Amino acid sequence: TIALQHGAHGVGRRRDAAMEKWRAYGLGQFVHWGLYSIPAGEWNGKQYNGAAEWIKSWKEVPATTYDSLMYQFNPTKFNAESWAATAKQMGVKYVTITTKHHDGFCLWPSKYTNFTVANSPYKKDIIGPLVKAYDRRGIDVILYFSIMDWHNPDWRYDIKTREDSVAFDRFKQFTRNQLLELLTLYPAAKGLWFDGTWDKSWVKQAAFADSLEKEMRAMRPGLIIGSRFRADEYGKRHFDSNGNMMGDYEQGWERKIPEKITDVHGNDWDCVMTVPENQWGYSKIWKGHIKTTDELLEMLAKCVSLDGNFVLNFGPKPDGTLRTEELDLAKGIGAWMDTNSEAIYNGEYAGLVKQDWGYYVKKTGTNKIYMLVFNVPVSGALNVVLPSRTAISKVYDLGGPGLSYVPEEIGTSTYFIHLKQQTFKRPFVLVLETADNS
Ligand SMILES: C[C@@H]1N[C@@H](C#Cc2ccccc2)[C@H](O)[C@@H]1O
Q1: Of 100, 143, 146, 179, which has the most beta carbons under 10 Å away?
Q2: Which atom, in ligand 1's list, is nearest to the CA of 101?
Q3: Rounded (10°) CA dihedral 192, 324, 358, 387
Q4: What percent of the chain has pLDDT above 90?
């Protein structure tokens, strides 16, 4: 191994209560909201081809003109309680909210910049009411923070000159001030979700970022920080030069999901997912494929079956309301979770041979295994292969009380579960209770 000053702070999973709770969430909500929600992917009547929250980076958009959107930010229909109630009904256990995206606009009245809600027609803090509304419903809040800040004149993509270095030192202090300010103003926040940390300027700040992470953790014991925050002194991100993960969970699964358990190296992780192909902030036009409730439920099942959390993104409209398509998805996912959420919460990798019909999830700390079924074979027989000397003692359907099955043993610890009907309109969950039959 390489002697590192600024590598991983530990090896293996955190076992404290705060992280055990994070591990059990299963389903989360992401909220991307800010000035970018106003143009919503369009500028002077032309469609921006990128993600709507990146429109400031479009050459057609003069930075100062974009920044003057602050004087249009007035979400008169914003109601934090309404967002939190929708999330509650959907069954999410945590929410990640953008406090400041790459454009630098702060949804809280930061005293370290004028580019905040305080100087918009809306005037009021957005983050505080959201933290309160979600937290009092038992939904934990994680604060998204972009290190890259296109508004701050001291931001640099790389440090090449003495002037760069002096400016970026100011930027680092500004960043530290804002992060300590967020932790001070919103003590109920359980974690920080960092973004915009890929440029050389920040990758070169191993010592500063390491020290800042330690300072934030000391300030808020139990604070949860992902692997995207910092690099080690050799510029390695997410995993240090010895291959150890920096941070409490792997933050690399953005709009993608691991295929198999070895892809996640025994770590905790989250997958953050957009409803359209790649739009996080509100975009007037959703191009390409829009994911359905059942597609998103299958992504959720796959993530939990591989020891991860699935975090679905919402991009609220500039007036503060949620778009219809997202409200419909929240309802559809919520209806399924009303029946089946015990297969999602406190779920983990079951260690069984993956079958085509769907995903296994083991209830943490128990021998209870859930079969989340998305693909019913034409035979109607679900194949189950258990570790040797393990037998199925009971099988029943979460959705149909009293609907139980008698599995057919077709080999050593190998079974067929013969379904009683051929067609199923929705994904469903069977509960498998096993017993040691050695
Ligand atoms: C969580 C997501 N990360 C941000 C990004 C990005 C990005 C930027 C360049 C190349 C690939 C991805 C998106 O704007 C959104 O906030």
Answers
A1: 100
A2: 16
A3: 30
A4: 94
CA of residue 156 relative to chain centroid, distance = 27
Query: Which residue bears the tokens 């003057």?
Result: 68
Q: What is the distance between the alpha carbons of residues 398 and 339, in angstroms, rounded to a whole number?
A: 7
| Token duo for residue 285 | 């036009």
Tokens of 179: 């992060």
Q: Is 46 helix (H, G, I), strand (E, B) or coil?
A: strand
- Dihedral, CA atoms, 357, 359, 96, 322, nearest 10 degrees? 20
280, 310, 312, 314, best to mutate for ligand 1 pocket (most atoms within 8 Å of CB) = 280
Backbone angles phi and psi of 213, in degrees to 5: -60, -45
Report helix, strand or coil for 434.
strand
Tens digits of residue pLDDT in 316-352? 999 999 999 999 999 999 999 999 999 999 999 999 9
Residue with the smallest CA separation from ligand 1 atom 7 is 196
Question: How far is it, in rounded angstroms, from Cα 291 to Cα 296?
Answer: 7
Q: Report residues whose beta carbon is within 6 angstroms of any ligand 1 atom.
A: 32, 51, 53-54, 195, 254, 272, 280
Cα-to-centroid distance, 256 and ligand 1 (Å): 13
